[in-house]
């Protein structure tokens, strides 16, 4: 007797069930494998925040990145999100989320946090160590600032004529009655010249502020005013001490040896200053320690109007 032909709908339904069953089996298998691998790889959300969250801030000083949070461990990766905005002199923008993703093998991806950009990024990238005094350059900068309203807020880079030790930087602060804080970051290592014909990868400048360290970002703490450079260097060295050679810092164009060398040397070649008055920047140009001031952005403080 001839077997009745199966209806087309029944065949399709059975095929779909097989696909669903295989898909679920694969998902459950991958989930089980992932759970086992997490035991051996020991992904640490807190360490991811301390190492990679801080590394992102170091390599992206063109952004204010005050807050971060973990999205938890997925079956195959962990995501840490930094919230922030571009570092501009004017009113802040709506917060943007910047994701840092670590996969099972410890590889980091953070495509929107690959280094400083814009005019501030260019100003930071142009800083070099020990270029010396250039009176013509200083005078041009002075005329530029004098041609603008002195009450403008500015985001700028203060470039030193010679590398500054912590002791000299503290003396510099006292001389100008400067109080280091959240609006002052230290360039511990300028970005080296990148030769695209070389096998060496490009490296970002090492820019540091104590508020870049994750455990401090959420907490209230006191800066040390004129002696803040001492505390900043101590905290930078403490953070570098947390790093391992196996940490994947390539996504931020940073390198373990690059950071450890900068921490050991501990000298500062420039400052990134955030929302300083032009009048205060203008005064620094009279100091022979200052080679120039590069303005990245200026704006009126609308809160002072009215």
Q: What does this protein look like?
A:
This protein is of the alpha+beta class and about 300 residues long. The chain has helices at about 10-40, 45-60, 120-125, 135-145, 165-175, 215, 230-240, 255-265, 280-285; strands at about 65-75, 75-85, 95-105, 110, 155-165, 185-190, 205-210, 270-275, 290-300. The chain is globular and about 80 Å long. Mean pLDDT is about 85; it is low at about 30-40.
Explain briefly what this protein structure is.
The protein is an alpha+beta fold and 306 residues long.
Measured by DSSP, the beta-strand proportion falls in 15-25%
Number of strands: 9
Q: Mean pLDDT, as a whole number?
A: 87
Give the biggest sheet.
Answer: 5 strands, antiparallel
Please, how many helices? 9
* Low-confidence segments: 31-42
Enumerate the strands of the largest sheet in spatial order, edge to edge or round the barrel: 7-6-8-5-9
Derived from helix and strand composition plus strand pairing, the structural class reads alpha+beta
Terminal CA distance = 98 Å
Fraction of residues in H or I helices: 25-40%
**Molecular shape:** globular
Helix-strand pattern? HHEEEEHHEHEEHHHEHE
Roughly how many Å is the radius of gyration?
A: 25 Å
